[in-house]
């Protein structure tokens, strides 16, 4: 085997634990010296300046990275984002304006639907940017601008380190777009970049939670279904947590925006329902806590994943709690992804599934 698992039992665990390093490499790729600005490839200059929309298209976990990216482009660059799943995007009648940027996100750079969407957007005059982990891939070669994630080879079918490196790259792009569009001051940019630069360290701390996550995973593995909820950038993360769990453990899992709980999934809540509540102590914390209260009131089993600030404010009645260090908002999705990945991994281990090669899944889907 070209890539060794070393002391890890599975590639998935190896790749989860590689994230502080992979993130460091990806950030080094996109941050300028002395590290307080984003420095993207020359071709990116001006690409976000006089545009009225940006589109992001991808599949699977890469699509969920794009969903987080939307919050950042809108918040930091005031740029409306149109995001879609690749297999839908090219069958919609999207009213394109020539010269708008279109971002495609893919670990492999070979996913058939994403590649076809890229060609579709290119034929309609969009400027093509791709965020890919394989620099020699078809998608990289077909793009005007390539933003590499430097995660290194990802072997486990369920994407882990590629996801967080995609997030880091999208964050850097959104910051660069904000600078270019005059919506971010130099000080604001420096603060965001400082936050990002701290991510690898926060990830290392998050990985130390593995024994606690393992214990929770064993409890979750006793149930047939699980729900993941979050608000803001924690919403796409809830989708990713659910996707990861179902991919590797085959436990039925759904991700929901916390505010949507009352519009459907609350009907399912009873004592047999673990609900992973992703809630850093940010501006939407109180609202998410009131959703968690609704779960508690119905004897559901909330597993709160929060930071120190959130832990000090959270109501009683939780089934389990995982506490991460308090960190800048821009880091939270990258760091909170790690306990979700470990939860899926250990649930799969508890259930004896084939973690690195889950049934029916492929690492790269090159058919439509
Ligand atoms: C497959 C993989 C997923 C991945 C998706 C998109 O479904 O199992 O882990 O997220 O394809 O792949 P890409 O290479 O385009 O990121």
TrEMBL record:
Start and end residues of each SIS domain: 44-183, 216-358
EC identifiers of the protein: 2.6.1.16
Primary localization class, coarse: cytoplasm
Superkingdom of this protein's organism: Bacteria
Active-site residues (renumbered): 363
Gene Ontology BP annotations: amino sugar biosynthetic process; carbohydrate metabolic process; fructose 6-phosphate metabolic process; protein N-linked glycosylation; UDP-N-acetylglucosamine metabolic process
Catalytic activity: D-fructose 6-phosphate + L-glutamine = D-glucosamine 6-phosphate + L-glutamate
Signal peptide as annotated in the record: none
Group of enzyme by EC: transferase
Record's subcellular location: Cytoplasm
GO CC field: cytosol
Keywords: Aminotransferase, Cytoplasm, Glutamine amidotransferase, Repeat, Transferase
Any one GO molecular-function label of the UniProt entry: carbohydrate derivative binding
Quaternary context: Homodimer.
Function as written in the Swiss-Prot or TrEMBL entry: Catalyzes the first step in hexosamine metabolism, converting fructose-6P into glucosamine-6P using glutamine as a nitrogen source.
Protein name per Swiss-Prot or TrEMBL: Glutamine--fructose-6-phosphate aminotransferase [isomerizing]
Lineage: Bacteria, Pseudomonadati, Pseudomonadota, Alphaproteobacteria, Hyphomicrobiales
Gene: glmS
Full-length numbering of the shown residues: 241 to 608 of 608
């Amino acid at each position: 085997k070209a890539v060794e698992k070393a002391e890890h039992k599975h590639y998935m665990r190896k790749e989860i634990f590689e994230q502080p390093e992979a993130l460091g490499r990806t950030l080094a790729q996109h941050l300028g010296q002395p590290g307080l600005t984003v420095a993207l490839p020359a071709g990116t200059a001006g690409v976000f300046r006089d545009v009225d929309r940006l589109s992001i298209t991808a599949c699977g976990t890469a699509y969920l990275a794009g969903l987080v990216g939307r919050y950042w482009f809108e918040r930091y660059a005031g740029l409306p984002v149109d995001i879609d799943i690749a297999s839908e995007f090219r069958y919609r009648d999207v009213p394109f304006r020539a010269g708008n940027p279109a971002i495609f996100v893919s670990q492999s750079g070979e996913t058939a639907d994403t590649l076809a969407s890229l060609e579709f957007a290119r034929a309609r005059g969009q400027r093509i940017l791709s965020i890919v982990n394989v620099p020699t891939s078809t998608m990289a070669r077909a793009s005007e601008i390539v933003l590499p994630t430097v995660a290194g080879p990802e072997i486990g079918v369920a994407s882990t380190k590629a996801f967080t490196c995609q997030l880091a790259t999208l964050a850097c792009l959104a910051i660069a777009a904000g600078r270019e569009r005059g919506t971010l001051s130099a000080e604001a940019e420096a603060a965001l970049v400082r936050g990002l630069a701290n991510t690898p360290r926060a990830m290392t701390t998050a990985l130390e939670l593995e024994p606690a996550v393992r214990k929770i995973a064993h409890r979750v593995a006793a149930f047939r279904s699980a729900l993941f909820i979050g608000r803001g950038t924690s919403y796409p993360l809830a989708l990713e947590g659910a996707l990861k769990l179902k991919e590797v453990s085959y436990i039925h899992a759904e991700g929901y925006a916390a505010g949507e709980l009352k519009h459907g999934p609350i009907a399912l809540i009873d004592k047999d329902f673990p609900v992973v509540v992703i809630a850093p102590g940010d501006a939407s914390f109180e609202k998410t806590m009131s959703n968690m209260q609704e779960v508690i009131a119905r004897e559901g089993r909330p597993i709160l994943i929060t930071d120190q600030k959130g832990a000090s404010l959270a109501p009683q009645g939780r089934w389990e709690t995982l506490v991460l260090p308090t960190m800048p908002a821009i880091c939270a999705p990258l760091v909170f992804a790690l306990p979700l990945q470990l939860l899926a991994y250990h649930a799969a281990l508890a259930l004896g599934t084939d973690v690195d090669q889950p049934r029916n899944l492929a690492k790269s889907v090159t058919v439509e």
